[in-house]
Prior knowledge:
Keywords: Cell projection, Cilium, Coiled coil, Cytoplasm, Cytoskeleton, Flagellum. By secondary structure, the chain is an all-alpha fold. The chain contains 8 helices and no strands.
Amino acid sequence: xxxxxxxxxxxxxxxxxxxxxxxxxxxxxxxxxxxxxxxxxxxxxxxxxxxxxxxxxxxxxxxxxxxxxxxxxxxxxxxxxxxxxxxxxxxxxxxxxxxxxxxxxxxxxxxxxxxxxxxxxxxxxxxxxxxxxxxxxxxxxxxxxxxxxxxxxxxxxxxxxxxxxxxxxxxxxxxxxxxxxxxxxxxxxxxxxxxxxxxxxxxxxxxxxxxxxxxxxxxxxxxxxxxxxxxxxxxxxxxxxxxxxxxxxxxxxxxxxxxxxxxxxxxxxxxxxxxxxxxxxxxxxxxxxxxxxxxxxxxxxxxxxxxxxxxxxxxxxxxxxxxxxxxxxxxxxxxxxxxxxxxxxxxxxxxxxxxxxxxxxxxxxxxxxxxxxxxxxxxxxxxxxxxxxxxxxxxxxxxxxxx
Length: 403
């Protein structure tokens, strides 16, 4: 596979960042306003989903809500019951009164919307009460909860679209196209490999079938060979018995000749023994002289090694003393090294604190500079506005005098 170019790797990383909503942050006032409106709508939807649960147990939440919110919820509950009653009656009655019922439904729907708005306005005016209701009222999985989740997804989608520039959108589309093209190529490669695998399996099965046939042929040929071997073994036994009798006769004649050779060799051996005993006596005398020389050399070696042993003990004593001094120096070095590490750590912490203070000072200086620049610009704009108003007033007075 070819290596990816740096530009392609950068585009891929940017596309992956765009695909992750957690990387997105508002970068303009318009975007913040849109997201704020969507967040407020989600909060209102959540409070709206709590209203049916609260109205079902008003006695429980009356002390928490207060008289004003409780009265509005009672009115909302009445309107809800009227709406349900009207919807059930509209299904049972004839179609003659459909227009009248439709008009009543429209009016009741408007009143119900106003009631919900009033309740939400009162609840949103008390944030602590809204937070307490979220803990007290537990809404199970319902169509309202599903709608709120869908609205959350819509909010995240809008945030992603608002924060994605046209260039990033094109890069994202190009990235998705590259992925789909790669998936298509991989699918084609997998299909080709599967076809090759099936062909290889078929050829392997054919080879196995051929090998089975060859094995059967070899079995039949082995049976023929065993029968031939039995006949050959019988013939070899007969020939071996004849050859054994012939070799027995030849060995008897050879034994007679060997006896004569043994007698001749015995006479030669006795002559050699006498000769070797004389040479052995000479070698024994030489051995005695060598042993005396070796004893002298061993005595000299012992005296020399005694001197070396004394010298070794002196060196070993000096070595032990130097080793003890070395261990003391190593202990002192360990203590000094620990102190050095502590000093270095304190220096590093002091340096980090100093750098952090410099960074905070530079940040505060930059912030103060920008605030001062904004304030000066604001003063200049206010001054120009006041001058323009004065000029307009002067022009207006001049026109009136002309008339």
